[in-house]
Amino acid sequence: MRRLALISLTALALSAMPALAQELTAITGGRVLTGTSIIENGTVVIQNGRVVSVGTGAAPSGARIIDARGKVVAPGFVAVDAGLGASEISSVDGSDDLSNRANTISASFDVSYGLDPWSFTLPVARLGGITRAIVMPNHAGSGGGGLHQDDGEVEFAGAGDGGYQTPGLFAGTASVIHLAAGTDILVKPRVAMVAPFGEAGAGIAGGARGAQFVQFRETLSEVRLYARNKAAYDRAGLRDLSLSRADLEALIPVANGEMPVVVTVRRAADILQVLRLADEEGVKVILDGADEGWLVAPQIAAAGVPVLLNPIDNLPGSIETRASRMENAAALNAAGVVIAIKGNGVHRAREARYNAGNAVSHGLPFEAAIAALTVNPARIFGMGGQFGELRAGAAADVVVWSGDPLEPLSLVTAEFINGQEQSLTSRQMLLRDRYRAGGRVNGGMPVAYGN
Predict the structure, then answer these.
(1) Which of 166-180, 257-271, 398-412 has the lowest mean pLDDT?
(2) Domain limits of the chain?
């Protein structure tokens, strides 16, 4: 009887069973990175899923002690734009819930309904110190250029089936999750809208950047018209609109300046136009990518717009990234821009700390790099003070590292999410341990061939 999958799943589930969050625990003697400061020989006390205190005092009586002498204690990292829990194998459609092609569901696409708490990607990310993530939908045109149908013809946004805009200019809404073992990882759905600009957005809108900006404005105009005239819409007394009711409803918070739009944009000229659009339309934006952001860092800072970036994007893969450079993160931070550092996709989200280390080697201050992995992502997505930093009252997302967390050889030695201690294993590690000696048990056949 072949039991490989069952054994791996069962072993992983059992090993991931958390300790009770109610236990009073003190992590003592470590170098504590709070997310906003550094405390030498610090003590972090947690109980009931929250941080009780952070400082240099002694551990409270009766607390379980975790000795962190010679180690580093930090907030759990927050992955941005990682797709964790919503995509298992990107090339297998049935396991990827980040993309949507329905023309009546674009802005209203909600990734939170596709989250999988048993995803094999979550334990791997935890081993990289990640305890929370902002899960964002993929846009059909995010790779740049137009969309391609099966017949090879380029598809541009316009009136599609039912008269609705297709493909949509919006990818859908992002969600916040935690990575603790359990059955419910959703923290908050619909924290931001996602939309591509630059080459990708132009490709969707008709081939030119100007077309997308006009269409974006017209879409907001339609949303505001609908919001003012819902009764007329209900009785078919309003002119035809290019979005479905679900999409119109989803975009009302965007049009009102309440929900931010994560805008994928890379070229400096495009960044300036997005800032102009946001100001004129009263829309909140978060820049995603901003490879040439360093060229217009003062303008981004003046607009108070945060940036999600991968600091190792330094090769001009297209004309719109011809001025990308490794010092981008440092230049944006020096100008006063709030930045968050990204990993390298779903299966390499844990590499965000490596990217932050590279940014430090190219001028970003160490403390700013830690903030870009912890407190900044939380603040950018409206969750400041709730997680991403070690402070009294915040979620007890605490990671103990063997050394500097930005050093690739450092390992997680203890990890808590919402005060629950997490397993430090993954399916890959279980498979490694099983087959490192050829997969044989006591010199016999592999377990999968047993009865």
Answers:
(1) 166-180
(2) 77-384
Provide the sign of the torsion angle of the four alpha carbons 262, 265, 268, 273, taken in this order.
Answer: negative
378 three-state secondary structure: helix
Which residue, chain included where needed, has tokens 């023309």? 103
Give the count of beta carbons closer than 10 Å to the beta carbon of residue 10. Answer: 11
The pTM assigned to this predicted structure is 0.88
Task: Please write down the HEC assignment for all residues of 133-162.
Answer: EEECCCCCCCCCCCEECCCCCEECCEECHH
pLDDT tens for each residue of 72-93: 999 999 999 889 998 888 778 7
Distance CA 426, CA 349 (A): 14
Which architecture, in CATH terms, is 77-384? Alpha-Beta Barrel (3.20)
Q: Give the number of other Cβ atoms within 10 Å of residue 189's Cβ.
A: 16
Residues facing residue 176 across a β-bridge: 134, 188
- Which positions ≥6 away from 51 have C-beta within 8 Å? 44, 45, 390, 391, 392, 393, 394, 395, 396, 398
Report the chain's mean pLDDT, rounded to a whole number.
87
State the burial class of residue 6 (Cβ atoms within 10 Å of its Cβ: 0-12, 13-18, 19+). Answer: exposed
Q: Give percent of the chain above pLDDT 70.
A: 86
pLDDT value at position 450? 58
Measure the CA–CA gap between 219 and 237, rounded to whole angstroms: 19
Axis-axis angle for helices 209-228, 245-255 (nearest 10): 100
pLDDT at residue 14 is higher than 80: no
Whole-number Å distance between alpha carbons of 202 and 444: 61
Helices and strands (DSSP H and E) totals, the chain: 13, 20
Residues 167 and 145: their CA atoms lie apart, in Å, by: 13
Residue entry with tokens 């972090």: 44
The pLDDT tens digits for 381-432 are 999 999 999 999 999 999 999 999 999 999 999 999 999 999 999 888 888 8
